[in-house]
Amino acid sequence: MTSDEHPLVALARSAITLYIRESRVLPATGDLRELGEIKAGAFVSLHRNEQLRGCIGTISNVYGNLEREVIHNAISAATRDPRFMPLQASELDDLAISVDVLGQPERVAGLEDLDPRQYGVIVERGNRRGLLLPDLEGVDTAQQQVEIALRKAGIGAYQSYTLSRFRVDRYH
After folding, report:
1. How far apart are CA 124 and CA 7, in angstroms?
2. C-alpha pair distances (Å), 73 with each of 11, 102, 141
3. Domain residues for 30?
4. Backbone angles phi, psi at 108, to 5 degrees
């Protein structure tokens, strides 16, 4: 942990390190008391050499509180993102971590209600759902944002779908 690392990022780093080095899940301690009160989804994103190395999260609270949410999603980002091989111990030292705590999603009518710098997007059709976080490099328009989320969900652009937006608090 670096001295300027937010406590949520330090928590994610500790969870990843313990799991990669010892195959153990970091126990939720409740030391960050304010996290026990927060029930929100969270995404943990991992980067090495400015390249994405893993990103997994939950849209809403699944594990009971934000501390547990970050622990489980950090481990999943490091070991279960299907786009990447599991993280190795040799990669831990230069791992950049960010944690996005998701606000409550709200339904919107269309692209005019989106701003990819300010809002993340969720597209849904039946049991298929795709999410894209806000303020991602290379995603400059609401159209691009929705197209990527549709691809992630396996929904054709010609199919009907619902659209929601959400804000995040991002920590590095």
Report:
1. 33
2. 11, 13, 28
3. 7-102
4. -130, 160
